[in-house]
């Protein structure tokens, strides 16, 4: 077996990098649970026809079949490419047993057969929250979800040093109501053209709207002006009003978006803006839409996106509307980790290496280790009764902060190998400095 | 989209069942980390040729390919069917960056295309620990691993009410040394026959050893007598000695196994026996072997198995011996969950439902919820400003223990809906009963 090479698009972490990831996932989970979201996991596979329904994405699906299955066996399966399709299926399958509105979070790997490049992976971890109801889903959940997500991302910033984020929010109904107020017949087509504004610039969008979509110059100018509005407070409302367009749907959209901005200003100040050019997922989102960039690393793309679906799932009788936000954990972490921007204080959970005086005395060292573990202190017993200098180097290579030298009976000494300080200690009472108890994750200097 | 049906062999959990699983996984992780094991995760896929090398198992592999890949594309992949093959590959790939002996735990899903039945799944979660070194791996790690695993399983028993376990341990060298001491030429073949003792009984094993393997009746009787020895203490040593066979390898095997039993008696009393008929994984284990049953549910099969590999991996120049134990989390949990033997006190993390007096007053309720969350108390804000009776029923359906009624300013009242007791409370100071802070997992009455 020669040395294997990494598979492009399937990132794997070193133990130290994995500690960073675990810290991130733990904090996401904790935030989601503080907001009453219940965890679910779904199987990795879905029937292929359920995955293939999703328009163009079928190109990227990984098909799964048993090595010795009959050719063209009926039960073809594919790996899920997101957590929304499986969640919709889970809701339908378990609707009788769920209490609605149902709040769930789901942190799992997903797979896409895309061409790998930075920011695009073939296997990656997503952390999704969704709220789904039967019939109708109250509008205030569109306000709630960005608070939860931004709260989670803010903890990553404050606790771990991950860069801060800026979430951009829009409401599909605002744009559609605006277009309808302008007596435009095909709002969806206008939306599609306006979505190109960052790529081709406002002038060419106006040109296309006039020449290809058949808008008047005034209509086209108004549409592009609308897309140019953005604000971190409710001032976007006046800016929209100043364009002089009126419709009921526009009013509804403005009110919803203003509510999001107002609440975010109160609880996650500086982290959310109304940005009226955000379109996202033109085919399925029907109301609020969200996307989120890392401040200073905008080029890495959106690290958290989502929106409202009027019909997340339907069994023909009942429709299940939902609103969801997904954090791209791998997309957030891999660029930071691969550039060495973030790391852990050590690559192991171990706080104390218990030295071994001789192989015959190994049981004494195991005894010390068990006493420390019983008090929540992670230990390893040295693998070999080498000279103490070698055992200290063993700890040092792993950045384990303390080495314990068992004495006779209950006596013993513990050395902080960073300072060299060595003191008598009792494994029933000694505790490390609080900040040494677990590896610390932080931006690297 | 009609109501989908579950896929046989791909178990999924309800939110309540998932809480049980999360409690189990959290405790496994905590125990592994207390013993200094570092977490890694490997990608779900391995090159097919790496998976197919493993003898017969290739029948059960799931092949993965992009939907629109060329027929017979060179880079065929399969889902991993265990965590050992990917770990061996990870060690080879990252050997330059790892410090040996390397201790890792790995908790992930694995996939096998087996015919689904109870105890056999197509997707299931394993929790593995392994210690791997370069060249040689010290024998005391064979003693250490069952302590860690039994410590983890004991926590599941004590904390969550999962039945206790009994681990059966043997050492391949003991049996081989014994056979060699009897001047038997083909110990591997004898081991293969003796392994059938539970299925066909000792008499038929003796018959086969004499008639097919060519042993004398005395040799065959001794082999079967050896397999009949089991003890929870070191008395197995005398029982083996009493059979009158001597060899160096036998002595080495006895000593290793006695060390395991002695240490287990000290730290996990009653949970481990030396059982000299245990064979397991005849093709790859070379020393200590482990298997573990749930006491009272022995028919469910082994919930934790493993052993020592003299060569877990090799790159031609360096050999990496290892010893590992794997806990079958899904195999342990699904029978308990599907029979309703174990459950959680509620299906949501939520401790407090903050009631909403009117939609206009929703910000007051959000404020209370945020104050409680800042102090680690999981909250939801009621989705609708219904009559309070309806909001209480909303909490009751989810077994959320408390409902908060925001008052004017900082006043408010909190009701324990189980007792009906309602008291004034300040969200900056109030705390629930300690046992209500998280869902409690326990055997069901």
Automatic annotation (TrEMBL), chains A, B:
Residues 20-347 form the Aminoacyl-transfer RNA synthetases class-II family profile domain. One of its GO terms (molecular function) is ligase activity. Its EC number is 6.1.1.21. Keywords: Aminoacyl-tRNA synthetase, ATP-binding, Cytoplasm, Ligase, Nucleotide-binding, Protein biosynthesis. Gene3D superfamilies: Anticodon-binding domain, Bira Bifunctional Protein, Domain 2. Residues 415-436 are annotated as: Disordered. It holds the Pfam family HGTP_anticodon. CDD domains: HisRS-like_core. The keyword Cytoplasm applies. Residues 426-436 have a biased composition (Basic and acidic residues). It catalyses: tRNA(His) + L-histidine + ATP = L-histidyl-tRNA(His) + AMP + diphosphate + H(+). It is an enzyme of class 6 (ligase). Homodimer. NCBIfam families: hisS. PANTHER family: HISTIDINE--TRNA LIGASE, HISTIDYL-TRNA SYNTHETASE. Belongs to the class-II aminoacyl-tRNA synthetase family. This is Histidine--tRNA ligase.
């Amino acid at each position: 077996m020669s040395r294997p090479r990494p598979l492009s698009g399937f990132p794997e972490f070193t133990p130290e990098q994995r500690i960073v990831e675990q810290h991130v996932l733990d904090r996401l989970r904790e935030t989601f649970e503080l907001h009453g979201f219940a965890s679910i996991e779904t199987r990795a596979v879905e029937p292929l026809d359920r995955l293939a329904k999703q328009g163009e994405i079928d190109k990227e699906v990984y098909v799964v079949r048993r090595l010795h299955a009959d050719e063209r066996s009926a039960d073809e399966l594919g790996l899920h490419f997101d957590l929304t399709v499986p969640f919709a299926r889970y809701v339908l399958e378990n609707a009788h047993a769920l209490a609605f509105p149902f709040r769930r979070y789901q942190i799992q790997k997903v797979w896409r057969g895309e061409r790998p490049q930075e920011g695009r992976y073939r296997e990656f971890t997503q952390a999704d929250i969704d709220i789904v109801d039967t019939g109708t889903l109250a509008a205030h959940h569109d306000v709630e979800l960005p608070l939860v997500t931004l709260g989670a991302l803010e903890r990553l910033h404050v606790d771990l040093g991950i860069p801060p984020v800026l979430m951009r929010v829009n409401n599909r109904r605002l744009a559609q109501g605006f277009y309808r107020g302008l007596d435009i017949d095909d709002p969806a087509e206008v939306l599609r053209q306006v979505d190109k504004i960052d790529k081709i610039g406002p002038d060419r969008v106006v040109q296309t709207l006039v020449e290809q979509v058949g808008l008047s110059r005034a209509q086209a100018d108004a549409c592009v002006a609308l897309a140019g509005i953005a604000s971190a407070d409710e001032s976007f409302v006046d800016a929209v009003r100043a364009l002089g367009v009126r419709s009921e749907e526009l009013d509804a959209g403005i009110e919803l978006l203003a509510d999001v901005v107002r609440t975010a200003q109160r609880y996650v100040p500086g982290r959310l803006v109304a940005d009226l050019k955000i379109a996202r997922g033109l085919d399925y989102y029907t109301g609020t839409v969200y996307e989120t960039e890392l401040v200073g690393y905008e080029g890495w793309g959106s690290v958290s996106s989502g929106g409202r679906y009027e019909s997340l799932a339907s069994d023909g009788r009942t429709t299940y509307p939902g609103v969801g936000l997904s954090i791209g954990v791998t997309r957030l972490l891999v660029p930071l980790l691969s550039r060495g921007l973030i790391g852990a204080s050590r690559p192991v959970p171990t706080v104390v290496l218990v030295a071994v005086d001789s192989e015959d005395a190994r049981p004494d060292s195991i005894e010390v280790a068990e006493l420390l573990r019983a008090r929540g202190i992670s230990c390893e017993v040295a693998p070999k009764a080498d000279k103490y200098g070698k055992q200290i180097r063993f700890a040092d290579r792993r950045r384990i902060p303390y080495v314990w030298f068992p004495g006779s009976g209950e006596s013993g000494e513990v050395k902080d190998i960073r300072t060299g300080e060595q003191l008598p200690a009792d494994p029933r009472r000694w505790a490390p400095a609080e900040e040494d108890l677990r590896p610390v994750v932080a931006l690297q200097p």
